[in-house]
Amino acid sequence: DTGVSQDPRHKITKRGQNVTFRCDPISEHNRLYWYRQTLGQGPEFLTYFQNEAQLEKSRLLSDRFSAERPKGSFSTLEIQRTEQGDSAMYLCASSLVLGTGETQYFGPGTRLLVL
Amino acid sequence: GQNIDQPTEMTATEGAIVQINCTYQTSGFNGLFWYQQHAGEAPTFLSYNVLDGLEEKGRFSSFLSRSKGYSYLLLKELQMKDSASYLCAVRDLRNDYKLSFGAGTTVTVRA
Question: Once rounded to an integer, what is the mean pLDDT over residues A18-27?
Answer without folding.
Answer: 96
